[in-house]
Design goal:
Layout lengths: L12 H31 L3 H87 L3 H5 L7 H24 L4 H20 L5 H21 L5 H28 L5 H6 L1
Length: about 270
């Protein structure tokens, strides 16, 4: 059911103040007249005072009665208006409002699909233009659409550094290996994010915080059941998977396609 805010009819604030003031005045008149009536009738008998007290008591009673009646009528009409809106106008508008909400969801979905198609078309155009200008087109297309030759060189260089760091930690058993491993995760995230300009993407920052949270805890837990070298090897295998998945997501997020998918379609 579509939740739609609607305006409820309420008693105006000025009328509430007026009713409260009238009721307070009536209570004061009733209290004063009752006190005066007791004095005039019991302590010192004064017929003129008794008559005057009865008149004031009657005025106070009617003022209190009509103030209370006015408040009850206001509440009654307020509830009547609200129930009329719920049972009448809102009941008839609800199907229309639900349809509007469904259409809005469909439009948002269609907009996201059109954006994805637009990115794919733009990627195909860029690949076609690049095919006629760049001498490194085949090497770049072999990796993924949208990548540059500089990225390929950086990735190869970082792979060499990563493997060197892995072999060094395996052979030397240095301390704080989880921080060194986390550093390599951050370097691969930084390389891919820089290539695809994902620093303004919220999901990209979530992806880097995942290893920040899991790697230190994972090392402490697995170190109790496995040898440290096996733990290091496991996390470096996960690093390869992490880099590949993040790279694939980055290509899909920015280019609307997955790595190698355009080349497979062309063939």
């Amino acid at each position: 059911m579509v939740a739609v805010p609607h305006t409820r009819t309420t008693i105006p604030f000025t009328e509430k103040i007026g009713l409260a003031f009238a009721l307070l005045t009536a209570i004061i008149l009733l209290a004063f007249s009752l006190f005066s009536l007791i004095v005039d009738a019991i302590l010192k008998f004064d017929l003129y005072g008794i008559v005057l007290d009865l008149i004031v008591l009657t005025i106070g009673f009617f003022l209190a009665y009509f103030s209370f009646r006015m408040y009850k009528k206001s509440v009654y009409y307020e509830n009547l208006m609200n129930s009329s809106f719920d049972e009448g106008i809102y009941t008839r508008l609800e199907p229309v409002l639900r349809k509007v909400a469904e259409t809005s969801v469909e439009m948002e979905d269609m907009g996201s699909r059109l954006n994805r198609i637009d990115r794919k078309v733009q990627t195909v155009i860029e690949e076609q233009v690049k095919a006629g200008k760049s001498p490194h087109t085949e090497a770049e297309k072999a990796v993924a659409p949208g990548t540059s030759m500089a990225f390929i060189v950086k990735a190869v260089f970082l792979t060499i550094i990563t493997m060197s760091g892995f072999m060094f930690m395996i052979s030397t058993s240095i301390g704080a290996v989880h921080f060194a491993t986390l550093l390599f995760y951050a370097l691969w995230w930084l390389l891919i994010s820089s290539e695809f300009k994902l620093f303004d993407n919220t999901a990209s920052w979530v992806i880097i915080f995942v290893p920040v949270l899991l790697i230190p805890v994972g090392f402490m837990i697995l170190d109790a059941f496995m040898q440290i070298n096996n733990v290091i090897a496991l996390f470096y295998a996960c690093l390869a998977l992490y880099a590949f998945l993040y790279f694939s997501w980055a290509v899909y997020e920015t280019k609307g396609t997955l790595p190698f998918s355009l080349q497979i379609r062309h063939k």
